[in-house]
Amino acid sequence: RSSWLLLAPLLTPPVPVIAAPPCSLCPEGAHRFQWIRNLVPEFGISSSHVKVLSSPAEFYELLKVQIKTAKQRVVMASLYLGTGLLEQELVDCLEETLEKSLQAKGSSNLRVSILLDYTRGSRGRKNSRTMLIPLLQRFPEQVRVSLFHTPNLRGLLRLLIPERFNETIGLQHIKVYLFDDNVILSGANLSDLYFTNRQDRYVLLQDSPEIADFFTELVDAIGDVSLQLQQDDTVQMMEGMVHPYQGDKMAYCEIANRRVMEVINSARTRQELLHAKTFHSSQQGSSLLSQQGSQASGGLKPEPDTWIYPLIQMKPFGIQIDEMVTETLLTEAERDARIYLTTGYFNLTQAYMDLILGTRAEYRILLASPEVNGFFGAKGVAGAIPAAYVYIEHQFYSEVCYLHQQERVQLQEYSRAGWTFHAKGLWLYLAGSDLPCLTLIGSPNFGYRSVHRDLEAQVAIVTENKALQQQLHQEQEQLYHRSGVVSSSTFEQPNRYVKLWVKLVTPLIKNFF
């Protein structure tokens, strides 16, 4: 079976690398990242609405509380929903909330929309689909389950490549959990490991209706071009929609691009109008204030001190916003700035590696030691994936040493007995600052898959509020505290031995995991 995986690079066309746009950081003012709003909507909020979570248990309990208190909408996008007891408890919470909503009004206003990946969500006889069918049967008017199927898995490739390996071609990888006007951004999936002992990152944006509307519309847009799960466990496309693997690929991708870009551009226009209106009101308010004293300011909202930028990456649809912003951040980071970058799967794109090795900022890169890699102990070929990551890490470390960059670029390995590591994102500390002013948090891993194959979303959170900066700093410190610095001796340890066949195969398959 694994032989088909080795054929995959020959069966899928290469994707050209596109450089980042010619935009640069504004050197003036506390908020130096406003150039991002040229690409995506900018949401200005109060830092008091942002809460950084630290543990899987905290994440799980928050999901349950938010589901139980939702009145208007529950929108959840994930790679998959697991099939264990903890996942069943989440489904039970949804059922209970929907039932209460029906009893309260006779006809419920509550709508539940769930977006998962088709291949991962269909794996095995008991799967994400079978977990959710009872909800569809009980609440057909209120529940929607969409299963995204990559347009790149089609024809002969779809027939030949077996289950599990078909997930290497492309996935719905976005993780957004939204309840009324509260939004959780994370890299965690809806599975028991992510609720117990798989470390990830999580941020809650409270009482943020514009951000919640944006992600609702984004999930709806992807859902519209996805297969719709039916009550009898069949799937079908919405009427008039091009099929992702049976229809014309170019036509499908064009429709998907149009739907997603409509969401991004309309939100951007809305936010620009809102900014203009707010600016005009604040100008009037300051004029009144000078004439009538401090009472005139009572009705004005406080100025935002935190800005949220949604960064979308959907290369199959020709959308590369996250890649552009990430490359620009890495390119423009100044000398003595520090970037803490973390990924559960260290497999950076060549473009990201070149920028890290060729720019001036200091880098502290946190990755999983083999024992906390999500594939550690897996059966079959997947069991060799941690060794492949060790090989990739060793190659990168050797390049760092060759360029004499060990002081500027440092690798650190997360290690924690009984846990796995899945955190991803970055924290940016400007030169001379002990606190980060920007973080990226969401689903991308900074690897080839994230950039070229999968559907990804994260947010850039920019803040000038010291308390929120401190929260982000503590989050970074807690993760890095459980790590050890990588040196030449790291790769001499017995558990770092990489078999010859893994070294030979890794260059062929590294773009698929």
What does this structure look like?
- This protein is 39% helix and 19% strand.
- It folds into two domains: 36-42 and 304-510, Endonuclease Chain A (Endonuclease, Chain A), CATH 3.30.870; 44-267, Endonuclease, Chain A, CATH 3.30.870.
- It has helices at residues 2-11, 56-69, 85-105, 118-121, 128-138, 155-160, 192-196, 209-224, 249-292, 321-332, 350-358, 385-402, 448-453, 466-481, 500-509, and strands spanning 43-45, 50-53, 73-77, 111-117, 143-148, 176-179, 182-186, 198-199, 202-205, 227-229, 235-236, 306-314, 319-320, 338-342, 362-368, 409-414, 420-421, 425-429, 438-442, 455-463, 483-485.
- Strand 3 (73-77), helix 3 (85-105) and strand 4 (111-117) form a beta-alpha-beta unit.
- The protein contains 15 helices and 21 strands.
- The strands form three sheets. Strands 1, 12, 13, 14, 15, 16, 18, 19, 20 and 21 form a ten-stranded mixed beta sheet that branches. A nine-stranded mixed beta sheet has the order 2-9-7-6-3-4-5-10-11, sandwiched between helices.
- By secondary structure, the protein is α+β, with helices and mostly antiparallel strands.
- Helix 2 (56-69) packs parallel to helix 3 and helix 8 packs antiparallel against helix 9 (249-292).
DSSP strand tally = 21
Q: In percent, how much strand structure appears in the residues?
A: 15-25%
- The helix content, as a percent range, equals 25-40%
State the end-to-end CA separation.
17 Å
- Rg measurement, Å: 23 Å
Shape: globular
The profile of the biggest β sheet is: 10 strands, mixed
Architecture (CATH level 2) name of the largest domain: 2-Layer Sandwich
Number of domains: 2
